[in-house]
Amino acid sequence: MTPQPGTPRADGYYMPAEWAPHTRTWMLWPERPDSWRAGAVPAQAAFRAVIAAIARFEPVTVGTSQAQFLNASTQLADIPNARVIELSSDDVWMRDCGPTFVIDHAGGLAAVDWDFNAWGGHDGGLYPTWDIDSQVARKVAQLEGVTRYATPGFVLEGGSIHVDGEGTLITTAECLLHRNRNPGLSQDAIETYLRDYLAVDTIIWLPQGMYNDETDGHIDNFCCFVAPSEVLLCWTDDAADPNYSRCRAALAVLENSLDAKGRSLRVHTIPIPSARYAVLESEGGAIGQVPDEEGQPERLAASYVNFLIVNGGVVMPGFDDPMDAVARKTLEKLFPEREVVMVPGGEILLGGGNIHCITQQQPRPTGA
Ligand code: KQY
After folding, report:
1. Distance from the CA of 351 to the center of ligand 1, in angstroms?
2. Element (H, E) at 47
3. CB of 126 closer than 6 A to ligand 1?
4. Is 357 a catalytic residue?
5. Is residue 133 within 8 Å of residue 88, measured between CB atoms?
6. Which atom of ligand 1 is closest in space to residue 353's alpha carbon?
7. 173, burial (CB in 10 Å: exposed 0-12, middle 13-18, buried 19+)
8. How far apart are CA 70 and CA 64, in angstroms?
9. pLDDT tens per residue across span 4-39
């Protein structure tokens, strides 16, 4: 299927908010040994728990390699709402290599297939080849039989944007303006892509995302919309935490921004869990910390904002941390009509992301 000419906006499509109804959630199955320790066995158990949690609320489609198809099918066999399909990928980050779905007001669904370069290509990207990931969005669009809009020459990951479905988008300059994404494009030219492909009018640029996030500061690990004109921002009051200044810089921007409908934003905050570090693997499991370039243990970008809103629920990561209970209460207050389900997120974090990063919602068009 050749991509659709023109742009989604010109054809009446827009990206709905994550809280709008879904048809399903798409995921990929972990296997890659340089991302997932111990033969990916602990990661597969963690993914299984996420799949089971989401499947309580809506169907989940899980793509696997040919080699993992039977294993995944067996492990997920008792989750009735989970479907396993053979859909190869380089790793598991469906948010980033999968399509961004857009809908119209007449029951239509389409997919945006952004260029993908594994978070930076050969200038700081996270794996050396990404050609299989680059085909994931196209394969999902074909499986669903929907129109696909491609953006040749324009790199974007789904985790680097959040929308309110009413014309506003939030992102970070750290990621979208990074030299390893679209070095030939000005901020204005990048905004034009976002306006044309997602039908947004107002773009709010936070300076940075979470400290040491290997995605170069994806917004979905730092700040998100929780309702029209309401956002949730990671927060720490510990001045020694490298996130301290990042949180304050983001707050200053959010407090001085209006959304596409001219409303001020109400900013809610959620604590950052205690510092967590990458671990070295041995035969027996984790034995030590991975040093960063200065020889310090590598801080992981743990965040409770990396949750997924599903039909009637919110599936959030927990870190076996004293802040888990506070974070859960925060989401329960913000989403009183949804059930908040906390799933262990530590193993997924070791791979470089969390629940939002490994999922992609397919909105249910409601306008027909
Ligand atoms: O969206 C994400 N958090 C992707 C992270 C990729 C990590 C690869 N090791």
Report:
1. 7
2. helix 41-55
3. yes
4. yes
5. no
6. 3
7. middle
8. 9
9. 889 999 999 999 999 999 999 999 999 999 999 999
171 touches ligand 1 (CB under 6 Å): no
CA–CA distance, 270 with 319 (Å, rounded to integer) = 14
- Whether the CB-CB separation of 148 and 99 falls below 8 Å is answered with yes
Closest CA to 15 of 106, 139, 93, 100: 100
| pLDDT number for residue 283 | 47
Taken in order 147, 150, 155, 161, is the CA torsion positive or negative? negative
305 lines ligand 1 (CB under 6 A): no
Q: Which residue has the tokens 């089971």?
A: 52
Name the residue with the closest Cα to ligand 1, atom 4. Answer: 353
Query: Is 22-363 in CATH node 3.75.10.10?
Result: yes
Q: Which pLDDT score, from 0 to 100, does residue 285 have?
A: 53
Give the max Cα distance, the chain. Answer: 58
Q: Write down the domain spans for the chain.
A: 22-363
